Amino acid sequence: MTAVSMAGALNRALADALAEDPTVLVFGEDVGALGGVFRVTDGLEARFGSTRVFDTPLAESGIVGTAIGMAMNGLRPVVEMQFDAFAYPAFEQITSHLAKLRNRTRGRVSLPVVIRVPYGGGIGGVEHHCDSSEAYYTHTPGLTVVTPGTPDDAYRLLRDAIASPDPVIFMEPKRRYWSKGEVTSDPIPMNRALIRRPGKDVTLIAYGPMVATALETAEAATEEGWDVEVVDLRSLAPFDDETVCASVRRTGRAVVVHEASGFGGYGAEVAARVTERCFHHLHAPVLRVTGWDIPYPPPKLEEHHLPNVDRILDAIARLQWDDEVVEVRGA
Amino acid sequence: MVPTRELLPTAEPLSLLRKDGSPVEDSPLAMPDDDVLLELHRRMVVGRRFDTQATALTKQGRLAVYPSSRGQEACEVGSVLALREQDWLFPTYRDCVALVTRGVDPAETLTLLQGGWHLGYDPYEHRVGPQCTPLATNTLHAVGFAHAARLKGEDTAALVLVGDGATSEGDTHEALNFAGVWKAPVVFLVQNNGYAISVPMSKQNAAPSLAHKGIGYGVPSVLVDGNDAAAVYAVVKEAVEAGGPTLIEAITYRIEAHTNADDATRYRTSDEVAAWLDRDPVDRVEAYLTARGLLTPERRAAVAAEAEEFAAGVRAALNTDHEHDPMSLFEHVYATPTRHLREQAAILAEELA
């Protein structure tokens, strides 16, 4: 089996879904002839025709709002928001309608819509191209929010997202679009976290773009004598308490990593839940390594914002290995 | 060319009946058949009685709130009766009369306003989308729905109702643009009732009319007298049959305040209201049908009796107390309840035990 890029795996997932299910549609800005600005939809319009894969007017609320109407009428739209921050015009359609219509109609209306959102930084993007917007969606009941960290998961999670009867926000870590790996399509439920690397001293909880960084950190940590377990959440909502807590109970220490700002962020929820469920197993407070609480910085400064191996190693070092009082920094 | 397929609307609203009920001789619109006119009258009388009943029930505390459409019956009824069986309606919260005209059970229509749940009816039963409370968002649902129908090879049109205020929302413009580009079979009916709660047209719009906005999107546009049920019926029917998008602005007036919680005397005069009462949509059809001998005293009495019976049914349904199961809060958030929600449901169940 040959290695494919994450963008290639996503393209294959879309093509396979289009081929298998005639109700699947792919649309958005530049997804047709161009194949998407990241080429995730490359060749799909030519292969499946412009009634199933097509460019829309440049209007994100329009894309999501019409997807809702199409799903009400029995289709399965997979729409692309070109960049994280460009999805904000669609926020009302997502939060007030897409997320709620099943509940508002007591289950009579089902909206199997997938919204693909390329997100996160690390690509040298100018402003409004690098937001980590996942917490806006995870805070909205009714939405499923998933994010792959590997090409394998990119394929698998996107197929599962398209098959889901619920709306799914599919967050694509754009800095990992070109990372390569094999696509196995082994069945793993969409709502389960995966242990990417077993370890016994500390659990590193990561997702999307930070999975690779967490694995890199785990390798570097062996030099310090720490055996780090890396959990890839895959699904942010719902959150797989079971896998995460089982890991933390084994290791007794946990660090949550994400690119998004920490304050009111997804990591705060993870830290709280782990603390509530694993308190007596913990040797140290759950720490977070996140982006600063600032607007996403310009490209020449983003390296100072994004969590990296050194910053995560620093956090691991502060997990009360020698019974010293932990210094909670940046609080 | 048929006048209603022009991109620009006429300078004056199209009409078929003058306010005294006399017919407009040179109207480019086709006068509906007599049986349609009689049905328009019957449904408007029943709809108005439903509306006054709902307002009364609100005063009695049976409804949390009720946005009346009194004065707008020609739009509510005329547009819905122009739909075919297979067509869909995408209404707003002010369109309860349109819903009952479409055949939605009145108690299920009022579930949202009664407060038992967000929506009481099954959208697929009568092909009526959920009533839209955040304005203009339903325009996009209508366009998507209609476009999907076309992709599936189905002959289905969507009628979306919005008010004058909603034409300022971005979604209306995105929807008109998408409908224009996709040539989607959608009828946008703007009920211009003069006010968005308290904000008048002069502060909402600088175009010569709201219907003028269609040309910017390549969408044929029509200006119609919104208190003329025959004309509203005719233009909506023609728009549905045309197969592509149409923007219709119907000039009408909201006789009641925005809702029972609103005080309309703070922003408009009673003289203004009186002038519109003189242009009543029900009186107009009644006068026409009576002059033609179609609306006999017997039929008029029968329609009035039917309206009373309808209102009695609404009273009976709304005066019945229903149990609201707190555990239902956790249902239908997802197709399958998540572990997280099952845990929270267990906590609430313990509280209730």
Question: What's the helix and strand layout?
Answer:
The complex is a heterodimer of chains A (331) and B (353).
Chain A: E1 4-5, H1 6-20, E2 24-28, H2 44-48, E3 53-55, H3 60-72, E4 76-80, H4 91-98, H5 101-104, E5 114-119, H6 134-138, E6 144-146, H7 151-163, E7 168-173, E8 180-181, E9 194-197, E10 202-206, H8 210-221, E11 228-232, E12 235-237, H9 241-251, E13 254-261, H10 266-278, E14 287-291, H11 309-317
Chain B: H1 34-59, H2 73-81, E1 88-90, H3 96-102, H4 106-109, H5 111-114, H6 123-126, H7 137-151, E2 158-163, H8 170-182, E3 186-192, E4 195-196, E5 199-200, E6 221-225, H9 229-242, E7 246-251, H10 270-277, H11 281-291, H12 297-318, H13 339-352
Parallel strand pairs in B: 1-2, 2-3, 3-7, 6-7
Antiparallel strand pairs in B: 4-5
Helix pairs in contact in B: 1-2, 1-3, 1-11, 1-12, 2-3, 2-9, 7-8
Point out poorly predicted stretches of chain B. none
Contiguous runs where pLDDT drops below 50 for at least 5 residues of chain A = none
Radius of gyration of chain B: 21 Å
Order of helices and strands of chain A: EHEHEHEHHEHEHEEEEHEEHEHEH
Strand content of chain A: 15-25%
Q: What is the count of distinct domains of chain B?
A: 2
In the sheet with the most strands of chain A, the strands line up as: 3-2-4-5-7-6-12
Distance between the termini of chain B: 70 Å
